Amino acid sequence: MNIVDIRAQMEEELTWRQNEIRFLRNQLSYISADQDKKRYRKSLVVMLYAHFEGFCKTVLLIYVDAINHLRIKRNEANPYIKTASLADVFKAYANLDKKCALFKHALPQDEKLHLFSRQVDFVNMIDALWQETAEIPESVIDTESNLKPVVLRKILFRLGFPYDCFAGYEGKINFLLEKRNSIAHGSGKEGLEEKEYSEVETASFAVMEKILKLVIEALENKTYLSVV
User: Fold this and answer.
1) Which of 133, 148, 171 represents a domain boundary (last residue)?
2) What single DSSP character describes residue 116?
3) Please, which residues have CB within 8 angstroms of residue 221's CB and are 6 or more apart in sequence?
4) How many Å apart are CA 197 and CA 46, to the nearest integer?
5) Domain count of the chain?
6) Which of 28, 68, 106, 111 is 20 to 30 A from 181 (CA-CA)?
7) Domain match, 66 and 163 both
8) pLDDT for position 114
9) Do 80 and 160 form a contact (C-beta atoms < 8 A)?
10) Does 146 lie in the same domain as 184?
């Protein structure tokens, strides 16, 4: 893994998005009427949210891809990476329709027995699972259609990052999401004041920069590995 190249890739991901928003914001100088400026800021909100979600998802997927390319074994990974890589195993384990092969005809409705059977299967697999490669599925980065602060916290938690690192900006990110959704659904007909938009843009890029820093530090310090 070339951390320098990965860092450059992620920084470029942030830079081009910042430049595009800056370019679009600068077009306000060509609009004279205050009411028209307010309406124009509505389009800025839509673009800003698109870049916010797009950046967070892209950078976190780059992190997942970097770890997957390392081909580390589960017994070498930290508990969060271990768990994330076992997503399919846990999904199968939670399948309540799976019956115990030995008793599926004699005791088809015995849920406790079938649960115990799955537990036995899991215990029998444990040693082998730890020796397998910790392959994290992309589904771990699930933005759930709207990257609300609570959704971003869940993603960060699954990857072992401090999930409350942007707590001071959550109010502004929620405001961004609410405005974007109201515009998309046709209820947000009012424009935005300059101060409103400026605060939301500042908060959005601050969170994006924090996510970038978290990922870079995790790769540089190898915090995805278990502590020996």
Assistant:
1) 133
2) H
3) none
4) 11
5) 2
6) 28
7) yes
8) 73
9) yes
10) yes
- Kindly report the number of other CB atoms within 10 A of residue 64's CB atom: 22
Of 43, 15, 14, the closest CA to residue 31 belongs to 43
The most distant pair of C-alpha atoms in the chain lies apart, rounded to whole Å, by 80
Tokens 């770890």 appear where? 67
pTM of the model: 0.88
Distance from C-alpha of 104 to C-alpha of 50, rounded to nearest angstrom = 50
Tokens for 17, please give them: 């998005």
Rounded to 10°, the helix 170-184/34-70 angle is 110
**Which tokens in the block code for residue 201?**
């843009």
Query: What does the block give as tokens for 158?
Result: 């699954």
pLDDT (tens digit, 9 = 90+) per residue, 1-46?
A: 689 999 999 999 999 999 999 999 999 999 999 999 999 999 999 9
- Cα angle value 157/173/57 (rounded, 5°): 50
